Amino acid sequence: MMFESTLVEQLRTVRRLVALTGAGVSQESGLRTFRDAQTGLWAQYKPHELASPEAFQRDPKLVWDWYAWRREAVKAVRPNPGHYALVEMEKRVPAFTLITQNVDGLHRMAGSQNLLELHGNIQRVRCADCYTFTEIWGDDSEAVPRCQVCGGLLRPDVVWFGETLPRDQLEAAVLASRACEVFFSIGTSGIVQPAASLGFAAHNRGAVVVEINAEPTPLTPKATFVMHGKSGEILPRLVKAVWG
Ligand code: BJW
Ligand code: ZN
Q1: 81 CB less than 6 Å from ligand 1?
Q2: Residue 54 pLDDT > 70
């Protein structure tokens, strides 16, 4: 793949860069994205219908089991060349901020350092009532495990629809996006707020927006550079073209 020379030149001298990632970045590791249809046991459910406090209230066991299944899926996969290319980028760019909506922890596993996890992490489990974190819980096939402190139901420490994002992570993400010179949006459908507005904020402040995604998104019209395809293929080639 050929990259536009203006992009390559710009990246060689960029000081402040933000990359926002979504489920598409982990697709090549073998994890399903949110907009993919589910298969097997979960084929009858839409991910967006399970990732909400209402779904957990209605049927906590169903939601707990879905996350238990996904937790195991995440444990079985590894970062892909897209994750590693972002680690490489961080080493070359003076002020690099990686903002992810992913809860799979693959960026951390790959070695990314300056990382903001906007939607939490699926491997962390906490009480739905008193917020106490726990590392160990029993696996009762009938019921959702309960908190040792208050007896409340345990849940994954992820952000569901209608819930607020971790304040410190969101604030840092907004500041970095407003201040960056180049903003990458990678593997995200750009639909879920407030993450989806970060690219627009960057664009409004004069940043160059670069989009790498399998398909167009609402951010595409604002992007100066758009690359349609797989992030695990495009990112390593881009890093090689710029710093290789
Ligand atoms: C590839 C590829 C490859 C594939 N290479 N590309 C303003 C307006 C309207 C609504 C709202 C608003 N503000 C807030 C809302 C409500 C709501 C919202 O945004 N709704 C929209 C659906 C309209 N937002 C919230 O509720 C948020 N909270 C909030 O704002 O609090 C304040 C508040 C509260 C109450 C009222 C008002 C305000 C919380 C959002 C939490 C999202 N949580 C989830 C689940 C996390 C846990 C879990 O993992 O189960 O986060 S939902 C899901 O979506 C998950 C993802 O992180 C997130 C984003 O999805 P992502 O990553 O973009 O994945 P996909 O699948 O959508 O896209 C993948 C893309 O990759 C596709 O385009 C593919 O083509 C591409 N792709 N393979 C490159 N190999
Ligand atoms: Zn509790």
Answers
A1: no
A2: yes
Strand order in the sheet with 120-127: 133-134, 120-127, 154-158
Residue whose C-alpha is closest to residue 179's, from 202, 208, 209? 202
Active site residue 228: no
| Ligand with smallest separation from the Cα of 166 | 1
pLDDT band, very low/low/confident/very high, at 1 (cuts 50, 70, 90): low
CA of 33 to the centre of ligand 1 (A): 11
Q: Which of 116, 113, 120, 111 is closest to 81 using CA atoms?
A: 111
Residue whose structure tokens are 């050929």 = 2
Q: Band of the pLDDT at 3, cuts 50, 70, 90?
A: confident
For a substitution probing ligand 1, which of 1, 20, 34, 65 has the most ligand atoms within 8 Å of its CB? Answer: 34
**pLDDT tens for residues 181-205?**
999 999 999 999 999 999 999 999 9
**Using H for helix, E for strand and C for coil, what is the string for 106-154?**
HHHHHCCCCEEECCEEEEEEEECCCCCEECCCCCCCCCCCECCCCCCEE
Torsion on CA atoms 205, 210, 215, 218, rounded to nearest 10? 0
